[in-house]
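To: structure subgroup
Subject: Chain for Friday's discussion

All,

I'm putting the inputs and outputs inline so they're searchable in the archive.
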Amino acid sequence: MSAQSGTRAGRRGLRGWLAHPGGGTPTWAFVANRVSALVLVGYLYLHLAVLSLLARGAESWDSFVTLAQHKAFLVVDLVLFAAVVWHAANGVRVGLVGSGVAVRRQRALLVGVVVVSVVALVVAAVALLAEG
């Protein structure tokens, strides 16, 4: 630990977590990937909490299912879907760039990831919101 700052060398808090060397377009993709990962981890905990309702009995579960069918609640499903699609598609992009296959096509791949994510989200939104 540094006596002056009170932190270990190399640690920069939230700014360090969000920062990515080099800046530019890859930085925004990096930050978006981290945010989508946080959404997915948050959903995991939410999912476990919802599943715990099963242990409380049929009444608890039925009241949750009634709430979950409300259109406003479906926005949570759309956020989850967007996070999954973005994280998966961007993961493929990161794999291609990281393995050296598409280093020079990084920006085009990122545009493709954004297009795929937006189209998939629109299709999912229409399908989910049209059901109710």
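Points worth raising on Friday:
The radius of gyration is 20 Å.
Residues 7 and 13 are 9 Å apart (CA to CA).

D.
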